[in-house]
């Protein structure tokens, strides 16, 4: 996935994208925060980008708000442009895109406009009864967290989002975790997935995060020197 373009122009940044999907309330936002902290990704929630757009006075604001209130999906070109803009404004090269692609149209629009193949799709699997319970006690003042809209969102998830999961499953790109456990336990499984893809891509930031007071300064120095050698070797 080298030198793919994010805006139609060539780029030598090696950009990594991981899509994060799961039913409404499966813990996408909760787990993404943990992945950011441990693995240095930048997190974009499609829903949060849309909510911010409704508050920005954008020409599409009212239309987006009405669709979200109904649990319906917003036009792909709008959400993909918002994601692309957020990625272009970021200095990072590793992105978690949560709540996306929600349907085939989202997936195809991302492929056309952003043109980056995801590393994999992280799928948080959780039964509907548990999702409903979590959404009804989320308490974030969301207009769509009411039983009527929740039922509509479940329907959209089953009918439009699951086919996208199947698309990536057929390509061996789905990493599924059981999300019906306490958040820390879910993250243990996610950690194993991200650790295994990390490989040589371990970052300086990662070493800083993993370094504990009980680790001797010489051990940390040794790790950093090893990383420098690795990077020099990669550039050859
Ligand atoms: N593993 C979990 N077990 C119980 N509650 C959870 C878990 N993960 C998240 N929650 C809670 O469920 C609600 C939905 O989580 P959130 O991360 O917003 O999900 P999503 O982004 O998938 O809709 C929040 O109130 C959150 O605190
Ligand atoms: N790709 C996306 C993502 C969200 N949305 C809209 O945003 C709403 C909330 O999405 P969200 O990802 O914040 O919802 P949760 O799954 O976090 O509960 C959805 O019900 C859709 O109305 C969309 O239209 N297209
Ligand atoms: Mg969310």
Mean pLDDT: 89
Q: Which hetero compounds are present in the coordinates?
A: adenosine-5'-diphosphate, cytidine-5'-diphosphate, magnesium ion
Task: State the share of residues found in helices, binned by percent.
Answer: 55-70%
Structural class: alpha/beta
Principal-axis shape = globular
Largest sheet: 5 strands, parallel
Q: How much is the radius of gyration in Å?
A: 19 Å
The strand order across the widest sheet is 2-3-1-4-5
Low-confidence stretches: none
List keywords for this structure.
globular; binds adenosine-5'-diphosphate; alpha/beta; binds cytidine-5'-diphosphate; pyrimidine biosynthesis; UMP_CMP_kinase; five-stranded parallel beta sheet; 236 residues; binds magnesium ion; 10 helices
Quick overview of this protein structure:
By secondary structure, the chain is an alpha/beta fold.
Describe the protein.
The chain contains ten helices and five strands. The chain has helices at 28-39, 46-55, 61-69, 76-89, 104-113, 128-136, 147-170, 183-198, 204-210, 217-235, and strands at 16-22, 42-45, 94-98, 120-125, 174-178. The protein has a five-stranded parallel sheet, sandwiched between helices. The mean pLDDT is 89. The structure holds adenosine-5'-diphosphate, cytidine-5'-diphosphate and magnesium ion. Residues 22, 24-30, 134, 138, 179, 182-183, 186 line the site of adenosine-5'-diphosphate. Cytidine-5'-diphosphate (CDP) is lined by residues 24-25, 28-29, 45-47, 50, 67-68, 71-74, 79, 99-100, 102, 106, 144, 153.
């Amino acid at each position: 996935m080298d030198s793919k373009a994010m805006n139609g122009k060539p780029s030598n940044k090696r950009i990594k994208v991981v899509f994060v999907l799961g039913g409404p309330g499966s813990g996408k936002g909760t787990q993404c925060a943990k992945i950011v902290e441990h693995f240095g990704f930048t997190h974009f929630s499609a829903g949060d980008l849309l909510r911010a757009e409704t508050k920005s006075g954008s020409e599409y604001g009212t239309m987006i708000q009405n669709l979200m209130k109904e649990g319906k999906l917003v036009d792909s070109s709008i959400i993909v442009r918002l994601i692309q803009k957020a990625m272009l404004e970021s200095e990072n090269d590793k992105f978690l895109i949560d709540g996306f692609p929600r349907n085939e149209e989202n997936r195809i629009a991302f492929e056309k406009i952003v043109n980056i193949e995801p590393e994999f799709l992280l799928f948080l699997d959780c039964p509907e009864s548990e999702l409903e319970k979590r959404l009804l006690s989320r308490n974030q003042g969301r207009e769509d967290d009411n039983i009527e809209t929740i039922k509509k969102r479940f329907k959209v998830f089953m009918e439009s989002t699951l086919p996208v999961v199947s698309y990536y499953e057929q390509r061996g790109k789905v990493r599924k975790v059981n999300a019906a456990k306490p958040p820390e336990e879910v993250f243990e499984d996610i950690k194993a997935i991200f650790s295994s893809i990390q490989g040589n891509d371990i970052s300086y930031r990662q070493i800083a995060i993993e370094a504990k007071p009980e680790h001797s300064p010489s051990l940390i120095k040794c790790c950093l020197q090893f990383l420098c050698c690795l990077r020099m070797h990669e550039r050859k």
